[in-house]
Design brief:
The chain contains eleven helices and 19 strands. The protein is an alpha+beta fold. A hairpin with a 5-residue loop joins strand 2 and strand 3.
Length: 406
């Protein structure tokens, strides 16, 4: 009954670029959210942040999506104009939401879920005053868990982003010119990706995580510690954005690691490839092969029911067996994970790290990024995006993985 009513709602909703093939997809996503509402003994969920609105509505709206435990969702819109439908209500301020719900015979929730980790304290208090629930639940992590298991539609979007990102990556060697700085090289890579249709938006979960499209790390800049919780850092061009390239002139014996976000349709594939200016040291080539070994081993072990912490421990063990523990996931500052979910943000759940007992589930999408920093050379290693299948991981990014000499 819910599916039928929401299908009717979507067909009556006049949204630009809303395809009928996506209507059942939105119903499925809302059903997943409703299941989470019920599992947490709540009555409704109020969504107000871009990523979750995009997930629930299929597009960015300025406003709110209100999803009750049962029945159809409501869309309270401030911008843009022109959105129509029986469940769409234009508002000037959020206080109107409770008035509209009550006018339509819908009781206000006694237990309300809100995105506590992503909205301000002031917004939290304001929304509580509007609905006056007996209990309010922070649902940020709950919604992240919902998003971590992808639908078939989402998997198709991720595969398409991976295909286009791979096509862009295959052009990288042709973009290099002798005497370039890492900044000049990065600009050419960004241009190529934009011409392939990359949206440029690098969405990251967390209020203190920022980046522009991704990072290119040349030589010893790869070991420059960053304030951000990415796998590797980089000094950046300015202290206001301490990540990635820093103006290093590309020279012989230097590695160049390219890690640019593949956002071509809102869903982000994650892929890293390593290049070199001339030949690198034997240790660098060995570490790169160990990176591929770790990736391939985790791809075999990462089946439904596998434990995130145990997968991470396997990566540490392989690095240790090869005498590379001291430079695994950094040199002066080591990241404490080897993989993470991807989707509407580049750092979705789950995270492959210590003390994480999360079990791997089918249709999770995970980026594995075992990387090393070799003193005097720079970063080596690889990263690919995978879909969790019953017998292991399906790789969807496919640019050549060997170190390519520019």
């Amino acid at each position: 009954h819910y599916f039928s009513s929401f299908y009717y709602f979507c067909t009556s909703l006049k949204m630009k670029n809303m395809k009928q093939s996506n209507i059942s997809e939105l119903a499925l996503r809302c059903q997943k959210i409703q299941a989470a509402i019920v599992a947490n003994a709540a009555d409704a969920c109020l969504i107000s942040t871009n990523v979750n609105i995009l997930y629930a509505a299929g597009r960015i709206l300025s406003g709110f999506v209100y999803i009750p435990a049962q029945g159809k969702p409501w869309f309270f819109v401030r911008r843009p104009v022109g959105v129509e439908g029986e469940n769409v209500q234009y508002i000037r301020k959020p206080e109107q939401i409770s008035e509209i719900l009550q006018a339509n015979g819908i009781a206000l929730p006694e237990v309300l879920m809100m995105e506590g980790d992503e909205i301000s304290y002031g917004e939290w208090l304001r929304y509580e005053a509007i609905f006056a629930p007996k209990k309010t639940i922070n649902c940020t992590n709950i919604l992240r868990v919902v998003r971590s298991v992808k639908t078939d539609f989402e998997l198709a979007q991720l595969k398409e982003s991976a295909r286009l990102q791979t096509a862009s990556y295959k052009e990288i060697p042709s973009l290099y010119k002798q005497g370039m700085t890492d900044h000049e090289f990065t600009v050419e890579i960004e241009r190529s990706m934009r011409l392939h249709g990359c949206l440029g938006m690098f969405r990251i979960f967390g209020s203190s995580m920022e980046a522009f499209m991704g990072s290119v790390l040349a030589g010893e800049n790869a070991d420059s510690p960053s304030a951000y919780d990415f796998a590797l850092g980089g000094l950046g061009l300015h202290p206001s954005l301490p990540i990635g390239h820093n103006g290093t002139k590309l020279g012989k014996g230097m590695s160049v690691m390219v890690d640019m976000g593949g956002n071509f349709n809102g869903y982000m594939s994650d892929q890293t490839r390593t290049f070199s200016i001339g030949k690198l040291t034997d240790k660098a080539y060995k570490a790169h092969q160990v990176s591929i070994e770790i990736q391939d081993r985790l791809a075999e072990l990462c089946v439904p029911g596998a434990v995130c912490e145990e997968l991470y421990q396997h990566s540490l063990a392989i690095a240790a067996e090869n005498g590379l523990s001291d430079c695994f996931m950094g040199l002066s500052q080591q990241a404490k994970f080897v993989g993470h979910g991807v989707g509407l943000v580049v750092n979705e759940l789950p995270v492959l790290c210590d003390r994480n007992k999360t079990l791997i589930e089918p249709n999770m999408v995970i980026a594995l990024e075992p990387k090393f920093i070799i003193k005097g050379v720079g970063a080596v290693g690889t990263e690919n995006t995978f879909i969790v299948r019953q017998n292991g991981l399906e790789k969807i990014t496919s640019a050549p993985e060997e170190i390519i000499e520019l």
